[in-house]
Amino acid sequence: MSEPGLEIDAVSKRYGAVVALEKMTFDVRPGELFGFVGSNGAGKTTTMRIALGVLSADAGEVRYAGEPVNYETRRHIGYMPEERGLYPKMKVGEQLTYLARLHGMSASDAKASTERWTERLGVAARRDSEVQALSLGNQQRVQLAAALVHEPRILVLDEPFSGLDPVAVDVMSAVLREKAATGVPVVFSSHQLDLVERLCDRIGIVRSGRMEACGSVAELRSGGAVRLLVDAPEAADGWAAGLPGVTVLGREGAVTEVELGDGADDQAVLRAALATGPVREFSRKLPSLTDLFRSVVSEHQTQETAA
Ligand SMILES: Nc1ncnc2c1ncn2[C@@H]1O[C@H](COP(=O)(O)OP(=O)(O)OP(=O)(O)O)[C@@H](O)[C@H]1O
Predict the structure, then answer these.
(1) Residue 204 and residue 168 share a domain
(2) 189 and 88 within one domain
(3) In this structure, which of 18, 118, 120, 265 has its CB flanked by the most CB atoms within 10 Å?
(4) What are the record keywords, sorted (predicted)?
């Protein structure tokens, strides 16, 4: 079994009558990039705030390396809050150095780290500018620098990719990958599912304060029904109707999409297609993370967006 990283264990939280989290449980292993996705109001920000300790849980526990997270551990978390948290009138460089010092770095290390991260994140030329003078995207780059400047052992980032241009998305993705490669557990929330699918080792899909599905994209896919694409140009409409356990989802030109239910035989589909004439393509259609997400959350979508 791998070493424990950051563990969120049966964490529950209410705001008055609103149940924000109901036994939220998952773990982010050392060196792992974990994508935290869910509808608006599903409970991602609440979970992250509890992990950082800016909000207390009603029940459950957050652990790091097998021990409950305490004040000392929290000094080693790099956090990017959803509401962002920079001082607008303070200069970028001074602010980052100050934050690094707050986390216990020496003055010279804090200065060197500020220089390193502002360069890496493309805001070195703005070190002497007030934060409020920067564009929103550049403020976000500085916000990420603020989460990284003290060389944290854990990274918890609330929607770090929102509002970034494609170049900044690439830089941010590379930085998160590198941090994970050094053994840091990295968790971030995002609504950009294509990015999450590309970047993350594992993904957690949250619905109504609960972890509904968790695993690698391949693991999440393995739970769903198999879909096939069959390109049979001479087949008449209805060629696959009546095959046991097979549902025809649609046809575009010569390509028919079918879903296999329990007990359905893909080879029977292939034989039926070949009986119509040539088959140019016969392949499995893998659902995207967006498809998987929709199937997990759609059931209660209305309830959550009303929150
Ligand atoms: N301070 C608060 N007071 C009352 N209710 C709150 C408070 N903060 C959050 N909530 C409620 O808790 C639930 C979870 O909210 P949370 O912000 O954690 O969701 P989220 O997944 O981060 O959403 P989003 O994707 O929109 O950022 C929602 O129903 C929200 O309305």
Answers:
(1) yes
(2) yes
(3) 118
(4) ATP-binding, Nucleotide-binding, Transport
